[in-house]
Design a protein that fits this description.
Layout: H1 3-9, H2 36-43, H3 59-72, E1 76-80, H4 83-94, E2 100-104, H5 109-122, E3 125-129, E4 145-151, H6 163-172, E5 176-180, H7 185-188, E6 198-202, E7 216-220, H8 225-235, H9 241-251, H10 254-273, E8 278-282, H11 292-298, E9 305-310, H12 317-324, E10 342-346, E11 367-371, H13 377-392
Parallel strand pairs: 2-3, 2-4, 4-5, 5-6
Antiparallel strand pairs: 1-7, 6-7, 8-9, 9-11, 10-11
Helix pairs in contact: 1-3, 3-9, 4-5, 4-8, 12-13
This protein binds pyridoxal-5'-phosphate (PLP).
Length: about 400
């Protein structure tokens, strides 16, 4: 089966539910057992193994978990209440006092905050590494390194990582490789084919696709699953069934939406490259991009989140406000992956510590993060063009 077919059919069993196409939305805390024996049997069941209590999942959650697993791969997927919770759960599952974590320097900012806050309080030490390190990661491994975290491309600065090379080194040292795979979605990067043990999705983004819910998922190999499952049971993290229902609607069309995001994103990136107001575009699907060769080798497509650096005359608040405050289509907001376009300024140095920004191959200047939505791409470009004109009027 191809992904487009999996996205439509995985996790659905209409004939178990009178032929109804979508699985029922089960609102459950209490689940009743018909006999004392069944009640006692449920105490031996683990979270996700069947219907025991609302927190541990119902038909609704299991259906979306199966649909994500069918697309992303791995042995088992469990849903979390947000993308951030999906990031923190594996860190809680695989790390304990005295352990060491290797974290890429361009990790999604709130994960860094978790490492510097809760993980530090737990006695876990984090070292940040250059996302472009590749096999050089070997020099950073310590005997107590238990987790190597990857995210490709990295948040805000879009470095593509050599995941197979990093995974090979991590495995040789007995460490678990956890990946934030949200950028590519389960369609465009298959983490388990590249040595990843645990893959995180912020379902909030492209899977949900409609900017109307927050959710996360953790998928893992069979070996990695028991520790993750235990952490899930111990923390009690779970999503709401109504949100699962909405996310299920999202996943049924992800294969129809993502190619459009990819195509429009690339068109906008190419257009931006031709503008005087832009010093550099950071999009791995562009041939000049430093991550292009790895992207081409490992990815099956590109989503529509990328960065660009503004040229010097644009890098002040007057020009930025003139551009951003009056955009007709591009909203300013912290998420992405929905149907609508977004544009925000970001400040990479504020969330990195191991590597200098800008890197030697990147221009100096204000970095912008754009999410290209599903509007007509000509209208998206016209909105950006008008924004540049307003900014220019301030020079
Ligand atoms: C790369 C990445 N991972 C994880 C998350 C967290 O997702 P959520 O907003 O659902 O907590 C985000 C959110 O912006 C993200 O950009």
């Amino acid at each position: 089966m191809k992904d487009g077919t999996r996205a439509i059919h995985a996790g659905r069993r209409p004939h178990d539910f009178s032929g109804v196409v979508n699985p029922p939305v089960m609102h459950a805390s209490t689940i009743l057992f018909p006999t004392l024996e069944a009640l006692r049997g449920s105490r031996r069941m683990r979270s996700g193994d069947g219907h025991t209590y609302g927190v541990h999942g119902t038909t609704t959650t299991f259906a979306l978990e199966e649909a994500i697993r069918a697309l992303e791969g791995g042995y088992r997927t469990r849903l979390q209440c947000s993308g951030l919770a999906a990031c923190t759960l594996p860190l809680l599952a695989y790390l304990g006092a005295g352990d060491h974590l290797l974290m890429l320097d361009s990790v999604y900012g709130p994960v860094r905050a978790f490492c510097e806050g809760m993980l530090k309080r737990m006695g876990v030490e984090t070292t940040y590494y250059d996302p472009l390190i590749g096999t050089g990661i070997a020099e950073m491994m310590r005997p107590n390194t238990k987790v190597v975290w990857v995210e490709s491309p990295g948040s805000w600065t879009f470095e593509v990582q050599d995941i197979p090379a990093i995974a090979e080194v991590a495995h040789a040292h007995g460490a678990t490789v956890v990946m934030d795979n949200t950028w590519a979605s389960p369609l465009y990067f298959k983490p388990f084919e590249h040595g990843v043990d645990v893959s995180v999705q912020a379902v909030t983004k492209y899977i949900a696709g409609h900017s109307d819910l927050v959710m996360g998922s953790v998928s893992c190999t069979e070996e990695a699953y028991p520790a993750m499952q235990r952490a899930q049971q111990e923390t009690g993290i779970c999503p709401s069934p109504d949100d699962v229902f909405l996310a299920m609607r999202g996943i049924r069309t992800i294969h129809a939406r993502l190619p459009r995001h990819w195509e429009s994103g690339l068109k906008v990136a190419e257009w931006l490259m031709g503008r005087d107001e832009v010093a550099q575009v950071m999009h791995p699907a562009l041939p000049h991009d430093r991550g292009h060769a790895l992207w081409k080798r490992d990815f099956l497509g590109a989503s529509s989140l990328f960065g660009f650096v503004l040229a010097p005359p644009m890098c002040n608040d007057a020009a930025l406000s003139a551009m951003l405050d009056s955009m007709r289509l591009h909203g300013m907001g912290f998420s992405w992956g929905g149907f609508e376009s977004l544009l925000i300024p970001v400040d990479p140095p504020s969330i990195r510590s191991a590597t200098r920004w800008p890197r030697p191959d990147v221009a100096e200047g204000q970095v912008m993060r754009i999410h290209v939505g599903l509007e007509d791409v000509d209208d998206i470009i016209a909105d950006l063009s008008d924004g540049f004109d307003r900014a220019r009027a301030t020079f």
